[in-house]
Amino acid sequence: MKRLKKAAAICLAGFTALSTVGVTGVYAEEANYDVDNMEFENVELRVAFRFTRDSEIDGQAKWYYEMVDQFNQENEGRIHVTDESISTESDYLEKLTTDFASGDVPNAFVEYGGSRVKEYVEAGYLLDLTSYLEKYPDWKDGVQEFAWATTEFDGVEGTYGIPWSAYQLCLYYNKDLLEAAGAQEPESWDDLVDACGKLKEAGIQPFNYSDKDNYHYEHLIGVLALKAYGPEIAEELASDAESYNGEKMVAIYQKMKDMIDAGYWGDAILSTDVATERSMFEAGQAAFFIDGTWNCGTFQNGSDRTLFDAEKIGVTRVPYIDEAYKTVEMGGGSDTYYITTLNQSEEEIAATVKFIKYLTTVNAINQMCEYSPTTYAEKVTIDTGNYLLNDVNVIMAENTDSRLNLPNYDTNSSATDTIRNSLQALATGASAQEVGDNIVDKMSAYE
Amino acid sequence: MTDTSGKRNKHKVCGSTVLLYAGAVFWTFMTLFPVAVTILASFKSKSEIYLNLMSWPDKFLFENYINANQTANAMRTITNSLIVASLTTAANTIIGMMAAYSLSRKGYRFLKYVYIFFMIGVMVPVHCTLIPINNFATALNVKNNLLFLILIYAAFNMSQAIFLYTGFMDGISRNLDEAAIIDGCGNWSLLWRILFPICKPIIATEAIFVFIAGYCELVFSMIMMTDSKYFTVSRAMLNFSSTHSQEIGNQFAFVVMSVIPMVIIYVVFHKQIEKGMLSGAIKG
Amino acid sequence: MPKNSSVHRVKNKIDKKDITVTILFLIPAILICAVFIIYPVIDTFVLSFKKWNGMFGAVKQWIGMENYYKILTDKMFWNAMLNSVYFMVGGFIILMPLAFGLALLVTSKIKGISLFRTCYFLPCMLGTTAVALMWTFILNPNFGVFHVIENWLGIDLPIPDVLAVKTLNIWIVILVNNWMYAGYNMLIFAAGLVAIPETLNEAAALDGASGWQRIRYITLPLMKNSFKVFSILCITGCLKVFDIIWAMTRGGPNDVSSTPSIMLYTQGFSYKFFGRSSAYGVILLVLGVTLSIVTNHILREDKDLVM
Question: A44, A53, A102, A109: best mutation site toward chain B, by most B Cβ within 10 Å?
Fold first, then answer.
C-alpha cells in the first residue's frame, strides 16, 4: 500500500484517536479528504445494503460480496467491513428506521433519494461528500450527470451520497406473441391499446400488470404524466400548482383504469408481485411487461432464460401520450450509497468513504456490469453483449429529459406511500376521481 | 333417561363413529392439501409454478434443495433456530412455572397485582417495543448475542405461559400439597416433584407453542442479529428474494427443509405429550 | 374444585421464609417482563403524547391528546377496528367449534389418532411466513386452485382476486389464520377433555345418554376453564394480529384489510409518526387488558354460564 505520506498519516491517526466520538467538522482545519492514503488501525465498519448473500441469481450481490472480501483482505488489520444486508424492502427499511431511532446506525446504507433520505440529511446524520469528490475528481466525473438527483436535496447544500445504479421505465415485449397476434411494437399509448386488443382477440393475455408491490402503478403514473404533460408536471405537482386530484392527473388514472376494465392487465393485479409478473412474462404468460431497465440483467441471470436466450424479448420506450414528450422519461439514479455521521468517529467516516469509493469507481462498476448487465449510474465503458442492454443504451442516449418518480419531488414525506396505497384502489373498482381524491385526503392527513 | 334399546344405542354409536372418521379424514385432507402443494412446488421450476401451481412436476428438480441449502445456509440457520427455540422453551417453562407456583399456591394480597402486571404482556404489540428494546440492546452492546434474543422471546411468551400455568395449577387439588408438605417437601420440591408432573399436559401445550414461536420469529432476530452466523430460519427465508427477483421454487424447498426438524421433534415428543395428557386425569 | 388459596392458607402469622420464597420464585419472571415488556410499555405510553419523527436525538415535542384525537377521528382506524372485530367473530364462530371438534376427535377412541393429531398440528408448525406464502399462491387467480378447478371443469370464467376484495380479503385471511391455529387450540381443548374423569362419561352412557347429550351436559360444563383460556387467548390474539395479515395482504389494497396493529406499524415505520404509532399501541393495550378482565369475570369458575 501507499506509504508516501506516512508522517501526515500518523499525525492524523493521532487526531482521530483523540476524537473517538468526534463529529465531522470538529477538526475542520486538519480535515483530510485523501482517504486512500490514510492510515487506519482496526476500524470496524458495518454496512447495510440490500444485496442477497449466497444468491445464485443476484449477479450484483455476487460481485459485491467478492469485493467486500477483497477489500477486507487488502486492508487487513486496518479496516474490516461487516455486511448486514437485508434484501426485502420493508424489512430492510424497518431495520434502518429502528437503527436511526436508536442512534446505532450502520456506517453506510442504501436508499433511493427522495423525502425519506431528506429527513436524515436535515437531521444532519449523513455525510456531505463534496470535499471528498473534489479531492478525487475522477470519482466524481465517473458518475453520469443525471444520476446525482438522488444525492441533492432542495434547500440543503451538498452532495449526500454516491449513486451506483440508474434506471428508467421501459416496455418489454414478447416478440413471438406480438407476431402471433399481428401486433406491432407500440409507440403511442393508442398503439398499445390497439395491440392489447389484438392480443386479447388472439387469446393472448397482454399484461399481468401487477400492483402487489405497490411501487409499480406509482411508477407508471409518473412516466405517463411526464409523457402527457412534459417534465414540468413534476415541479407543478410538488409546488401544488397541479394537484393529484386535478383534471390532468385524473386523466392519467382513467387511462390505467380503462386498461384494467378491458381486462388487458390481467385478473390478479393485487395478488401478483413484480417477481411473479416477470416470471410469467418469461414463461410466455403475457406479451408485455413494463418495469425498470434493471430487468436486462435480471432476465439474463434468472433461472428461466429460454425467452431471453432466444432473443425473443424486445424493449422499447413506454408509449407516449403526447408525441411532443416522446423522449421524456422517468428514471435517473436509483440505488445510492449514503454514509452516516451519527455517532461515528472521524476515522470510521473516512474508512467508510474509502470503502464506498472502492465500490463505485468506474472500474468497479464495469466489473459489476459484467456480473449483472443493467444500467448504472457510472459511465460504464464495457460492452456486455446483452442485447437488451444495448437497445436500452441506445434509447437512453436519445432521451431529451428525465425525472425521478413524482413523489420524490413532494415536500410531504408521506407522498410516496399514500400515492402507492391509493393507486391500488384502481384495481378494486374505485373511479379515477375517487383515487385522486383519496390521495389528496390522505396526504393532508399526514401533513 | 329414556329407555333406548341397546340395539338402537349400538346403531347410533356406529353412526357417530362413521361421522367421526369422516370428520377426521376431511380435516386431514384440509391440512395436508396445502402442504402437499408446497412439497410438489418445492420440486418445480419457477415457470412451472407460475403456469400451474398444482400440476405434477415434469421433472423432479432436486437441485432446488441444493440451491436452497446454499442460499439459506440451511444447516446453520436451522441449527440456530433449534438452539434458540429449545433454550427459549426451557427458560420459559422454568421461569413461568416458578411464577405460576407463587401466584397459584400463595395467598398474599399483592399477588393479584403481580398477576395483572404479567397479563399486560399478553397484549403488548411487538412493534411498540422494538425501538425501546433496540435502545437497550445498543446501550448494553448485546446485539448478536443469542442469550439476549432468547430472553426477549422468553419475555414475550411469559405472560401466556403464566396465564396458562396458573390457571391449570389453580385446578389442582391442594390436598396433594398438604400431603407432600407433611412428607417434608419444601416449596422447590413441591413444585418440581409433585406439581410439575401433573402440569405436564399444559406444559406440553405451551412448550410446543413457545418452541414454534421461537423457531419462526422474524422481527427481533432481524433487528438483533446482524451477523449471518446467527441467522435463524425466518431471517434466511428473506434471502430468496433479491431486490428484483424471487426464487420461488428454492424458497418452497427451504420451507419444506425448515419444517422437517419441527415435525421430527413433534413426532418424537408426541408420546410424551400424550403421556402427559393422560396423567392430567388426576386433576379436578 | 377447591380454588381460592387464601381459604386453605394457614392463618397463622405470615411466615417470613414463605414470603421470601414466594418473591424469589417470582423474581426471574418479573425481571424479564419488566425489562422487555413494562419498560417499553411505559416508553410507549409517554411517547403517545408526543410528536417524534423517529430520528435519534430529535426533540420529542409534547402535543397532549392530539395523537389520540387524530386516531379516533380517522375512519381508517374504525375500519381497522372493524377488521379486528371480524377476526374475533371468526375466532369464536369458526375457530372455537373447529378446534373443539378436533379435540373431541383426537381424544375419541378411533384408530389412527396419533397420525390425525400430527396432521392437524402440522399447519401450526409451518410458521406464519410459510403459511402465508403457501396460501397466497394457492389463492392466486392466475395459477392457483380456482384456476385448476376451472381447467378440470373446462370453463373459463373470470376468477375473483379474493385477496383484493374489501371485507372478503380479511375473511380469507381469517380462514387461513383459523386453519393454521385450529391444531394449537385443539391441544388446549384436548388438555381439558382428558381431565374429565372417564367414569362420568361411562356412567352417563349406562344411563343411556347419547353422544351429543354427554357433550352437552357433562363435557361442556366441565370444560369451562378451557373455554376461558381459549376466549382470552383468542381476544388478545385477534386484537394484536399482525404477521399473517402483513404477509398475505400488507393491510392492502389501499389499507382496507388493515388492523390496528398494521396501522401502528405503518404509522411508525413508513410514515414516521412514532407518537401516533405509540398511541395506537396504548389503545390496543387498554382495550386488550379490559376485554381480558371482562372475559375472565364473565367466565368465572363459580358462575354457571354454559347452559
Answer: A102
